[in-house]
Amino acid sequence: MKVLVFGSLNIDLIFSVDHIVEGGETISSSSLVKSAGGKGANQAAALAKAGMDVYMAGKVGQDGQFLLTLLESYGVNTGAVRVYEGASGQALIQLDKTGQNAIVLYAGGNAAITIDEINRTLEDFGEGDCIVLQNEIVFTGEIMKAAHKRGLRICLNPSPYDEKIAALPLDLVNILFVNEIEGAALAGSSRDGEPVGSRPPEILGSLTGRFPKAEIILTAGREGAYYGFGDIRERGNIVDVPVVDTTGAGDTFTGYFIAARYKQYPLQAALDIACKAASLAVSRKGAMEAIPLAVEVFPPEER
């Protein structure tokens, strides 16, 4: 099975601050770090570090060549990433002293992808392959429809969540990755019109009812991760570590869960492996660079 990540590639500018800036406030940053990011690129790196055969598709400017070099160093095939004359995507990240972040995105090349490029990329993939998507590039719905026609399994992480998500053909999704905020927004209200509860099991129950064809994975921070499909319910637990930087934690989880399932781990074990990988990632600074290697995550026989 080949895994295609069709998504964003960003240049991250990380400002270390005492607290997240408020409206009208000016604060100083103790450091500035330029690094590789973008949810698509992060998930491709996580998949590659977990030992998968992964391909990256997207678009960057000349300023983003170092992104491709770094991905290739992890084993990602970047042949389907187009380089154009404009700017790469940018992410301005505030990282506070507790490890929490606030992010401002500029789309750059992520908004310059064309339908023709999408169709040419998908020609190299087919039945049995997997495509991983997020919400940081254009034409995600068109990619989903074209991938479905070619028989690819569709994994969607609808992040960052906005009004565009409702317009996507969500009935085509095979695996849906959401956090609590995204899950609650997608769940909306129950069938009788009442608001869905705020607890992860309640959100999960609503999502499995709304999307009966999709496996639902709901990440819940220190509460770990929840899985739902039909009447099946499982839960994975985090490893308790000091939190240094939460950037890329969800992307790490996504990559390692897909890899663990491909390696045929049972659901419970796959959730625990993905939670462990995400826990290790948040104990380090950075996004892509903080993602752990397979030798740090999988049991010895699977490394």
Fold and architecture overview:
A hairpin with a 5-residue loop joins strand 11 and strand 12. The relative contact order is 0.14. The strands form 2 sheets. A 9-stranded mixed beta sheet has the order 5-4-1-8-9-10-11-12-13, with helices on both faces. The protein has a 4-stranded mixed beta sheet with strand order 3-2-6-7. The protein is built from 9 helices and 13 strands. The radius of gyration is 18 Å and the shape is globular.
For the largest beta-sheet, the strand count, sense and barrel status come to: 9 strands, mixed
Mean pLDDT: 93
Low-confidence stretches: 189-195
In sequence order, what are the helices and strands, one letter per element?
Answer: EEEHEHEEEHEHEEHHEEEHHH
* Strand segment count: 13
Helix content: 25-40%
Query: Taking Cα atoms only, what radius of gyration do you get, to the nearest Å?
Result: 18 Å
Report the β-strand fraction as a percent range.
Answer: 15-25%
Which geometry do the CA atoms define? globular
End-to-end distance: 18 Å
Strand order of the largest sheet: 5-4-1-8-9-10-11-12-13
Structural class: alpha/beta
Count of DSSP H/I helices: 9
